[in-house]
Design brief:
The complex is a heterodimer of chains A (325) and B (336). By secondary structure, chain A is α/β, with parallel strands linked by helices. Chain A folds into 3 domains: 2-107 and 158-167, no CATH class; 110-147, no CATH class; 181-319, no CATH class. Chain A is built from 14 helices and 9 strands. Chain A has helices at 2-13, 40-46, 60-64, 77-88, 110-115, 144-147, 150-153, 181-188, 191-202, 210-214, 240-254, 263-267, 274-289, 316-320; strands at 19-24, 33-37, 47-48, 71-75, 97-102, 121-127, 130-135, 138-143, 165-167. In chain A, helix 11 crosses helix 13 (274-289). Chain A is globular and about 60 Å long. The termini of chain A are far apart. By secondary structure, chain B is α+β, with helices and mostly antiparallel strands. Chain B has 2 domains: 2-63 and 78-197, no CATH class; 210-335, no CATH class. Chain B is 29% helix and 21% strand. Chain B is built from 11 helices and 12 strands. In chain B, strands 3-2-6-7-8-9-1-10 form an 8-stranded mixed beta sheet. Chain B has a 4-stranded antiparallel beta sheet with strand order 5-4-12-11, with no helix packed on it. Chain B is globular. Classes of the chains: A alpha/beta (325), B alpha+beta (336). The interface between A and B is large, with 45 and 54 residues. The complex binds iron/sulfur cluster (SF4) (5 copies). One iron/sulfur cluster (SF4) binds at residues 205-211, 267-270, 272, 274 of chain A.
Chain lengths: 325, 336
């Protein structure tokens, strides 16, 4: 972890970059904030790399890479997919970014720790497979695996797909990560059961837009749901139709571009499993058009903006929906 | 002081003969204020994700409909006289937030929709016994071990204890048996011990006042503070004291529905006027949220801050930026 900080200092000192995008310490051990560092002093004082660096930095590079000078960005494997996808969409100025790939053992989530019944956590330390928490009520232990953030439990790949330099070893894809298991479960439900499931999940939505604003695939200059002039702006879900509308439209809009970075579910204050919606689209795309991973490389044509002779017929939607039987 | 065995809560709530809302876990395991019916259990969690303000100031409400038929416009009012209802289990921070909302909605011009609900509500607060590290109500002089409301409740291992604070409250619990205060006092002592150790419990807010308005406003550090903000509005929507709303109209084809919904100063179209957006970048929007709570509000309200230290924005901001970090960065020396 010190290695990452050292690298940040080195890059700035050598003049290779003028700014560094990383994570800044907070009030607690877990509340790190993405931040741009401009001096070695700032880095020495506040830069951290720890198991609480869940926030994906790639989206910040849309704005940061358009500023003057070069910026170093520390990207975890999942962040690197977002980075490549954004490059593919011509949203990032590549030459202004120096990518340092950082390997990751899975990021922890304070809410996952608290879900284990631990209250008032003020510090943690790892002891083998255990996370020992100091709390206002004394020490408590939780299994490290239970402290992991939801998306890290089914991490699709430890491969850093693009980097200018790498800290640690590069990893590999994990086809057995089980990320589609829950999707299969949903698919096995009847349409009514599935509807009830999503109704119950989505009805909690407070339309705070955190999922959209954090999403690297949601990079439109003006979201349709914010567009006053068009009359499509909506700040509250007027009814359950509107509620579903927002989420379905968003899922469709990121289909084929969503890298499954998991940020949407991480930030949802209502713990809505938005990733399941996106993973359903990914699974369908894989099944209908052949395996495709958004953000895995710069060359492959995305299936939804490509055409091949053996593409499935549009009516597949109808038959798969169960109506064609 | 009155006492009620925990096992008899259901029958007590039933005997009240009016709608009761209490924090209960939904199927996803999160607590939210839910209309009580037999079988709805009081949560074991400290607080709800959405605050109790929803019951007075809902996220969305229809104000009026205009039904158009040929040349005629019919106006359909949605306001109905509320029946009395009980909010059970409000934490001290959320109860203090009602007083902040009152200053806004009940001062001239009075917000009739809000007032109606407020007038018909009986508030039963619930003392905290296990604060989280994100709590900092103590910084605002709120006593989590002795919250306000019409009735104050304490929950121990096997019983509830109730103390009436108003005439309305007195009536509500009149039928219960008397209880001995010592269990409550013991719990309070324990809770206060924890409260005294809250990491942000002694947040120093000196200098956040009208006299230092321009100094705070022009502070150069708003840039670094707001830099990572996503402008999502989560902080405003989970906040018990955030009070901004938008009034919009929705055309259903033959009817115009005028509704109001929560708005957020973090949004790009907040208070947008024909001349444009008065706060063109996220820095200004971000600054607005914290200047409002820490400077403008106390300046207009006898020094009362627009924050109650509930800690929700500390828990829920996707990038972990929040009022404590703001206060410590541009605030009092006493924050170390
Ligand atoms: S983050 Fe969650 S609550 Fe917020 S808009 Fe997205 S789904 Fe709704
Ligand atoms: S939809 Fe969710 S998982 Fe997909 S790219 Fe956006 S934030 Fe990441
Ligand atoms: S600003 Fe944050 S801590 Fe203060 S009342 Fe609002 S949500 Fe709670
Ligand atoms: S902020 Fe205070 S009153 Fe609110 S839940 Fe925490 S301890 Fe209780
Ligand atoms: S401070 Fe946090 S919660 Fe509030 S708008 Fe910014 S990113 Fe969202």
């Amino acid at each position: 972890m010190q290695e990452v900080k050292q690298k940040a200092i080195e890059l700035l000192q050598s003049g290779k970059v003028q700014r560094v995008l990383g994570w800044k310490t907070g009030e607690f051990f877990y509340d790190l904030t993405p931040a741009v560092f401009e001096t070695v002093e700032e880095i020495k004082k506040d830069f951290v790399f720890s198991p609480f660096c869940g926030a994906n930095l790639s989206k910040y590079l849309i704005a940061e890479s358009r500023k003057e000078g070069k910026i170093a960005a520390f990207l975890k494997p999942c962040d690197s997919y977002s980075f490549v996808q954004l490059l593919k969409e011509h949203r990032i100025v590549r030459e202004n970014v120096h990518v340092v790939g950082v390997q990751c053992n899975g990021m922890c989530d304070i809410e996952a720790i608290k879900a284990q019944g631990v209250k008032g956590v003020t510090a943690v330390r790892q002891e083998g497979e255990t996370l020992v928490c100091e709390t206002l009520y004394g020490e408590k232990s939780v299994p490290y695996a239970a402290a992991l953030s939801e998306r890290c439990k089914t991490c699709k790949s430890k491969k850093i797909v693009l980097f200018d330099e790498l800290l640690g070893e590069n990893g590999e894809d994990d086809p057995d990560c089980g990320r589609f298991d829950l999707v299969s479960k949903l698919e096995a439900m009847t349409a009514e059961e599935r509807f009830a499931f999503w109704q119950q999940e989505l009805s909690r939505c407070i339309r705070c837009n955190a999922c959209r604003n954090v999403c690297p695939a949601c990079s439109c200059e003006k979201c349709v749901f914010d567009n006053d002039t068009l009359g499509t702006a909506n700040k509250a879900a007027a009814n359950s139709f509107e509620e579903q509308n927002f989420h379905i439209i968003r899922a469709f809009h990121v289909a084929g571009r969503c890298t499954d970075c998991g940020e949407c579910s991480r930030v949802c204050p209502q713990h809505i499993p938005l990733h399941l919606l996106n993973r359903k689209f990914i699974k369908d795309t894989n099944e209908l058009y052949g395996e495709y991973q958004a953000g895995a490389d710069l060359e492959t044509r995305p299936p939804l903006v490509d055409f091949t002779q053996d593409d499935c017929e549009p009516s597949v939607v109808y038959t798969r929906g169960g109506n064609g039987k | 002081m009155k006492k009620l065995p925990i096992t008899e809560l259901d029958s007590f709530l039933k005997s009240l003969n009016m709608p009761v809302y209490l924090p209960s876990d939904d199927p996803s395991g999160q607590a939210k204020f839910t209309r009580w019916a037999e079988g709805v259990q009081l949560t074991q969690q400290l607080n709800t994700v959405r605050s109790a303000k929803d019951l007075f100031f809902p996220q969305m409400e229809n104000l009026v409909d205009f039904k158009v038929q040929d040349q005629k416009i019919e106006i359909i009012e949605h306001r109905n006289v509320s029946e009395n209802f009980v909010i059970f289990g409000v934490r001290a921070c959320d109860a203090a937030a009602f007083e902040i909302l009152d200053r806004v909605f009940l001062s001239d011009p009075v917000d009739g929709y809000y007032k109606e609900r407020r007038d018909h509500a009986l508030i039963v607060t619930m003392a905290c016994s296990a604060p989280e590290e994100t709590c900092f109500c103590t910084a605002f002089g709120i006593d989590a071990a002795d919250p306000k409301g019409d009735v104050t409740a304490w929950k121990t291992e096997d019983s509830f204890f109730f103390r009436a604070n108003t005439g309305k409250g007195e009536k509500l619990i009149a039928g219960l048996a008397d209880g001995d205060e010592s269990a409550v006092q013991a719990q309070q002592a324990q809770t206060r011990e924890i409260l005294s150790k809250l990491p942000n419990g002694k947040l120093d807010l000196t200098g956040f006042d009208g006299a230092h308005m321009m100094e705070k406003f022009n502070d150069s550090r708003w840039k670094e503070l707001s830099e990572a903000c996503l402008g999502c509005g989560t902080c405003t929507f989970v906040c018990p004291t955030c009070q901004c709303y938008d009034v919009r109209e929705f055309n259903t084809g033959d009817t115009i529905q005028r509704f109001r919904c929560w708005d957020s100063c973090m949004y790009s179209d907040f208070t947008k006027m024909s001349a444009g957006q008065p706060r063109p970048t996220q820095l200004e929007r971000f600054r607005q949220r914290f200047m409002h709570k820490l400077v403008y509000f106390p300046d207009n309200n006898d020094g009362v801050y627009g924050c109650v230290g509930c800690g929700r924005c500390l828990q829920k901001c996707p990038i972990h930026m929040n009022i404590v970090k703001v206060a410590k960065t541009i605030g009092g020396e006493g924050n170390g």
